[in-house]
Design a protein that fits this description.
The protein is an alpha/beta fold. It folds into two domains: 166 residues, Rossmann fold (3-Layer(aba) Sandwich), CATH 3.40.50; 110 residues, 3-Layer(aba) Sandwich (Rossmann fold). The chain is built from eleven helices and ten strands. The strands form two sheets. Strands 1-2-10-7-8-9 form a six-stranded mixed beta sheet, sandwiched between helices. A four-stranded parallel beta sheet has the order 5-4-3-6. The chain is globular, with a radius of gyration of 19 Å.
């Protein structure tokens, strides 16, 4: 398979690696670097490009004319899939969790999807939880009117996505001791960890609460590589109450980080990752003399403001 779907402009790979001067790390002898995956592609930034490109290749090679995928009301994955469909001339259908959203004006994220031509189909949360069951999926295909679409799972996390993310780990070989990434469905961490050198460690910061992600990452690696790797772990203390929850403490941290470094901080994923790494540095979790790399997977796109949002 190729490494570049026929999109314009071409992706920027490898993504830049940027060192930051931050006293909260420096006073512990730790170097903080940012892996700027948010700069890979203007329409498919970050891990979305890495997770989608092999799936797009497969869809085009098999002659599919449409992509169907799933996500919450503020899903970066839905936005990226909609953009990919526009770039490739494919129809896109997004199955959105939360039927109560159907009668409201579209939020900026879903409006962006619609502007890129994605047809949005809203379903209730109970049905959404069963979306992978054959009878539910068949009913969804019928309800959306999709004819033989290429189905991409929520968050884009399948074996092709995990394979695509191994390059992220390979790009970080010999450049860091710990590579850290915020996790939604776990596909990026699963692939990145497999691409790292044996002496490197991968750290995942889940942005959802629940403690379910570890087994899912193990299963992704089992399906993709035949066995899980042993070089990653999760720290589940930094979800701040759940997906898209941005309490004042997190907002204040993100604002301060932006002021210190002149960089926009996306609130749903990146802010939690950077907060976690800063707290871990202060706790002495990283040995003096080590380098820690934060993988910046998302741009500062439209995000929810309601504290009760639980979509992903």
């Amino acid at each position: 398979m190729s490494t570049t779907p026929p999109t314009t402009p071409r992706p920027r790979l490898p993504s830049p690696l940027q060192e930051l001067q931050d006293d909260r790390f420096a006073r512990h002898g730790v170097t903080l670097t940012l892996k700027r995956d948010d700069l890979i592609h203007p329409d498919l930034p970050g891990n979305k490009y890495r997770k989608l490109f092999l799936n797009l290749d497969a869809a085009v090679a098999a002659g599919h004319k449409a992509l169907l995928t799933f996500g919450g009301a503020y899903s970066n994955h839905l936005r990226a899939t909609a953009a990919a469909g526009r770039l490739l001339g494919l129809e896109t259908i997004g199955v959105v969790r939360g039927d109560e959203l159907a009668g409201r004006p579209l939020n900026p994220s879903l409006a962006h999807c619609a502007a890129d031509g994605m047809r949005l189909h809203f379903i209730d949360r109970a049905t959404y939880r069963r979306k992978t069951e054959p009878e539910i999926l068949t009913a969804l295909l019928h309800a959306t009117g999709a004819e033989d679409p290429y189905v991409i799972p929520e968050g884009g996390s399948n074996s092709l996505a995990v394979q695509g993310c191994t390059a992220l780990g390979e790009e970080l070989r010999d450049h860091t001791h710990t590579a850290a990434v915020a996790c939604g469905t776990g596909g990026t961490l699963a692939g990145m960890a497999a691409g790292l050198a044996p002496h490197q460690r991968a750290l995942g910061i889940p942005v959802l609460k629940g403690g379910f992600l570890g087994p899912e990452i193990q299963a992704l690696q089992q399906r993709t590589f035949g066995a899980p790797t042993a070089n990653w772990h999760l720290d589940e203390r930094f979800h701040f109450g759940g997906y898209a929850r941005t309490p004042p403490e997190l907002t204040a941290f993100a604002n301060d980080f932006e002021d210190r470094h002149g960089l926009p901080v996306e609130r749903v994923y990146v802010a939690k990752l950077l907060y976690a790494l800063t707290a871990l540095s202060e706790e002495g979790a990283f040995p003096p003399g080590s380098t820690v790399t934060a993988v910046i997977t998302a741009t500062d796109a439209a995000a929810p403001t309601a504290q009760s949002s639980t979509s992903r």
